[in-house]
Amino acid sequence: MKHPTLPAQAALKALLRHRWYFTVLFCLVVVSFSMLPALAQAPDKAVFGHSSVGSVNKPTPLIAPLYNPDSDPFALWFDSPFRSPIAISSTTGPAINAMSGLLSYANPDMVTDSIPDDSADRPDADPALASASSVRTHFSAIPAASAAPATPAIPATPPVKPDKPARIPVLNYHSITVDPGNTATITPEKFAAQMQYLADKGYTPLTLKQFSDMMEGIDKGPDKPILLTFDDGYADNYEHAMPILKKLGFHATLFMSPGTVEDGYFLNWDQIKEMHEAGWDIQPHGMTHPHLPTLNAKSQTFEITEAKAQIEQIVGTTADVYCYPYGEWDATTLKILKEHYFRYAFTIDQGITTPSQDNLKLKRIFVNGEESMDKWRYRFEK
Ligand SMILES: [Zn+2]
């Protein structure tokens, strides 16, 4: 006799008969639930297959638009202690991560810098996961142009140091007077015309401080620098040169010999002080305008240091720039200048002055008062 089939037995038989269907269904349910926290939490430790799924804190903007745990009932479940056993496998993790990358590529606005890349901190990182991380890094590198706030442009600061070495014409004048045939003199009219030319062409006659700053690369200086020097201290410099330079706002440097101040033909101290107040630098040219190489060391030292001391005491300035009388010097002269901390010394060697020259052998441009204006300007504009 055939026993009647009980409902439980029938159910068991059906279960066994369709066990593969039920197994597949069960697996689908498990996989579906396991993917949701990863989608909610974005690529973090869970994505890399760590068991510490519960350590993820909050969704990043990468996935938030697709899944918001604050409004989804599943969020409560995933925040419960039960979420920890449901770890993302190392197979699904990279797949989800790659998908996140594609999403961020499709919408760069979603890319933020809040995604930590901690793969480098984990020596046990799975190589397969590392490749997934590189996918994320690649897409995260796409600039979020449309989302980034406009950054105000930082105003460019002018360069303090020059981009190329200074080239400074140093003009060498002497007497400003009418003395036909004397190339070292120039008429007041021609001198005035030359100064006006410099003004019209935008030249800036320098102070010695400006000259020094340019030579040492401290300051770029004006676009068209020039240094006006006057040798010997002729009285006509006060009468003819100073008023013109004052009118144009020009600076100049006077190289004078204190031993000549009572001569009458040369400037006296009152005139020199007045010129200094008008913007002239006053510097030594020897006590008596000697041929230095003909003197012994003691006499050279006196000529150089006494001139320096008198100018500094009477004019109240620093006199550490020398000018060789007749352009003559020897090894003893250079040694004395160095021992007394002279910063520069001018010769009568012809050329534009540059920092590449020896500071104690600087070139100048002799102004021949007999020459035309064109020849004069050619010497420093060529
Ligand atoms: Zn001289």
TrEMBL record:
It holds the Pfam family Polysacc_deac_1. It comes from the Bacteria. The chain crosses the membrane at residues 20-40. The keyword Zinc does not apply. This is Polysaccharide deacetylase family protein. InterPro entries: Glyco_hydro/deAcase_b/a-brl, NODB_dom, Polysacch_Deacetylase. Coiled coil: none annotated. Residues 224-382 form the NodB homology domain. Keywords: Membrane, Signal, Transmembrane, Transmembrane helix. The keyword Flavoprotein does not apply. It comes from Paenibacillus radicis. It is found in: Secreted.
